[in-house]
Design a protein that fits this description.
The protein has a domain of 253 residues: Aminoglycoside 3'-phosphotransferase, Chain: A, domain 2 (Alpha-Beta Complex). It is globular, with a radius of gyration of 22 Å. Helix 4 runs parallel beside helix 9. The chain is an alpha+beta fold and 403 residues long. It has a five-stranded antiparallel β-sheet. Strands 6-8-9 form a three-stranded antiparallel β-sheet, covered by helices on one side. The chain has 15 helices and ten strands. Pfam families: EcKL (PF02958). This is CHK kinase-like domain-containing protein.
Length: 403
């Protein structure tokens, strides 16, 4: 199945009354009458995990509108009890995401536009609710020409665009905090999700990585080093570094990978713009969190290019905002990234699996992949993943003190 099974049909409360309220609240029309609507999955298998998302195309009439058509993206919680629902119920991710879109990202957009950065930062939220159902409705970026990258690993040019967009978000939130915003103290991150920490992949990653490294000729010494690492030890290291005071802090996206971005081409058919999506676990802390999160999933040769480009854009945005304080230095950023080496090891042993798995060969649901250790272990044998860890993990282990 190429779609998540719980996204084939929307919840029963998604009906004409709900859609009428959404369209009227969005300002698209008054006295709306829903004529017809059709729901399809908004994502494919492997694009995301916990929330469920639907693309709903609505035809309607309203005051002054005889034949209105609108495409909506609905994000909500699964109704069926299970790992997904447990994960979402353990953390107020919908509250946070609504807050980010309505109270933070709009202001970020305004500041960035004044600095000359006019590309779309994130989609516009047109409706949200927490009761009786948790729901967020977005404009459909597909209608604006945006698309999901058909590959999980960007090329060098796309990597520059990705880190440029991240720098814009980081810089403008740094400036907003310096100007007195006191509502950015989110401590999201995947390490703050209590239900998430109960998931199999959190605890089996280091062990499975050690096992697969041990099967690779010439990598035995690295496998031996990995075998000394326990999941508890690595988790404790990650939690500690995420909560340490940083040389300077920004508002991190918190789940910064290529499936949480949408891309748009220019008139020359080249990718030229990126919009960020899925702001459910924002995190105030070192910029190294987002940087390492994404860099861990890239070819190693892109790393320094990405970090340098990110920092140049970060400083450019900061200066153009009129920030008058002491500017962060690249040396500070390098030290922050180095301090997050334990975090990268965790990402290499877990999240990199989801990036480098061959999704065309996946014939089970993401919930099974994330919870069944047999299925999860099988992914470590993937050709693309092995090629990635052979390149990145030895370099990483050479910088980490395991003792």
């Amino acid at each position: 199945m190429s779609f998540n099974k719980d996204e084939l049909d929307p919840p029963k409360w998604v009906n004409s009354d709900f859609l009428r309220r959404v369209i009227e609240d969005s300002g698209k029309g008054k006295n709306v009458q829903i004529r017809n609507y059709e729901s399809t999955p908004a994502t494919v298998l492997g694009d995301h995990f916990a929330s469920i998302m639907f693309r709903i195309k609505v035809t309607f009439a309203a005051d002054g509108i005889a034949n209105g058509v609108i495409s909506l993206i609905l994000k909500t919680c699964p109704d069926v009890d299970g790992l997904k629902k447990q994960l979402l119920d353990s953390f107020n991710v919908f509250d946070l995401e609504i807050y980010m879109y309505t109270k933070v990202l709009n202001e970020c957009r305004i500041i960035l536009e004044k600095c000359g950065y006019t590309d779309l930062l994130a989609p516009r939220i047109i409706y949200s609710s927490l009761t009786p159902h948790k729901a967020i409705v977005f404009e459909d970026l597909n209608e604006l020409g945006y698309f999901m990258l058909p590959k999980n690993v960007p090329d060098e040019y796309e990597t520059r665009l990705i880190f440029s967009k991240l720098a814009q978000l980081h810089a403008v939130t740094f400036k907003m905090k310096a100007d007195g915003r006191n509502d950015f103290n989110f401590k999201g991150t995947i390490f703050g999700l209590s239900a998430g920490r109960q998931m199999q992949f959190f605890w089996t990653g280091p062990k499975f990585l050690a096992e697969v490294m041990g099967t690779l000729p010439g990598f035995e010494s690295y496998a031996n080093k990995l075998h000394k690492i326990t999941a508890d030890w690595l988790m404790d290291k990650c939690i500690k570094v995420v909560n340490l005071p940083a040389a300077y802090s920004v508002l991190n996206h918190g789940d910064f990978h290529v499936r949480n971005m949408m891309f748009k081409k220019n008139i020359f058919n080249a990718v030229a713009e990126i919009a960020l999506v899925d702001f459910q676990i924002p995190h105030w802390g070192s910029p190294a969190y987002d940087l390492v999160y994404m860099a861990a999933l890239l070819p190693y040769e892109f790393r320094e290019i990405a970090f340098r480009h990110y920092f140049n854009i970060f400083i450019d945005v900061l200066v153009k905002t009129g920030y008058e304080g002491e500017l962060p230095t690249y040396e500070q950023l390098q030290q922050e990234i180095k301090a997050y080496s334990y975090l990268e090891l965790y990402f290499q042993s877990t999240l990199a699996i989801l990036v480098y798995m061959d999704r065309s060969k996946i014939d089970c649901q993401m919930e099974t992949i994330m919870s069944d250790p047999v299925v999860w272990r099988s992914l470590y044998n993937g050709e693309n993943y092995i090629a990635h860890i052979k390149e990145t993990v030895p370099k990483l282990l050479d910088t980490i003190d395991i003792e």
